[in-house]
Specification:
Layout: H1 2-20, H2 26-47, H3 55-81, H4 86-93, H5 96-106, H6 113-130, H7 139-161, H8 167-189, H9 200-227, H10 230-234, H11 236-252, H12 259-285, H13 289-302
Length: 304
């Protein structure tokens, strides 16, 4: 259920963000979104009886929130403002699970060989899928775009390793910290009076981002980080573009070319390798001693 929420809800947020940015400044959009979400989660956590974070836990939450909420979300927004097309942005985001798997490997976690295969297939599928959209870019926009998934992966890995409070309180602390950082920067560049010019349609899309994109899907993702493999938690990055494309066709009147029909089977195969790769590896090894020795040697090299 957590995977389904992250796949579907975050896939639809591309469409919602486009609506919000038609009349709302990007820094303020993210700052007030995460401050509001953090406030809601803080009240929920206190109601559930969780203690407030310690000083160390606030510091750790600020590291995670600074990377994921403040840096990653705002770098993505500025990249799109500087000319990054939707196709290129969707492709760049697929590097996130690669980064996360790499940090996990360096940190001593075992990343199965089949997960690497799945991640590679997912990137290739997303590359083909990106041919459906605008692939334009500026050099500065491209740098910012690549920085977004890098910062997100660092924050994701840090959330797996640092001492944090209970999940609900951890979400609240991370979002409040990241939102506060964003608000400080926003006040330098974007006047609060700009919020008075936001259209009703943009506010409706912003509420969708707050409730579903943050309170529902982001909590599901944080749960996945704590309870599943890095590859599985990060697999959303090459599923979301497919969902976003289908939403664009259904709601935005976009047209599809033949690339999508080549990309979707690759993305499906990528998920199969990540979800069921080890079972497939054991099944194939029964029929091929050579393959069994190869996979065993790969697995032994993946160990710390």
């Amino acid at each position: 259920m957590a995977l389904l929420l992250v796949y579907v809800v975050w896939g639809t947020t591309y469409f919602a963000i486009g609506i919000v940015l038609t009349s709302m400044p990007p820094l303020l959009m993210n700052a007030i979104r995460f401050l509001c979400a953090g406030g809601v989660m803080l009240l929920m956590a206190l109601w559930q009886g969780h203690a407030l974070p310690t000083v160390q836990q606030w510091r750790n939450s600020a590291v995670v929130g600074g990377c994921m909420v403040f840096l990653a979300m705002n770098l993505m927004g500025f990249a799109q403002k500087l000319g990054i097309g939707s196709g290129l942005m969707a492709t760049v985001v697929t590097t996130m699970p690669m980064w996360l798997a790499l940090w996990s490997r360096w940190g001593g976690e075992r990343v199965p060989f089949t997960s690497w295969i799945g991640l590679a297939l997912g990137v290739v599928g997303a590359l083909l899928l990106a041919l459906e959209g605008d692939f334009s870019a500026t050099w500065l926009g491209a740098v910012l775009a690549f920085g977004a998934p890098l910062c997100w992966s660092i924050g994701s890995y840090a959330s797996r390793k640092l001492s944090l409070p209970a999940p609900a309180m951890a979400s609240a602390a991370q979002w409040l910290a990241g939102g506060a950082m964003g608000l400080v920067v926003a006040l330098w560049f974007e006047p609060l009076s700009a919020l008075g010019q936001v259209s009703a349609k943009s506010w409706a899309a912003w509420v969708y981002l707050l409730v579903f994109g943050t309170l529902v899907a982001l909590n599901a993702y944080l749960w996945l980080l704590q309870n599943t493999s890095a590859a599985l938690a990060g697999s959303y990055s090459f599923v979301n573009p497919a969902v976003a494309l289908l939403v664009g066709v259904a709601l935005g009147g976009e047209l599809l070319t033949g690339w999508v029909f080549a990309a979707l089977p690759l993305i499906g195969a990528a998920l199969a390798f990540i979800l069921y790769g080890q079972a497939l590896q054991r099944w194939l090894a029964k029929f091929s001693p050579g393959l069994r020795r190869l996979l065993q040697s790969r697995s032994s090299r993946a160990l710390p």
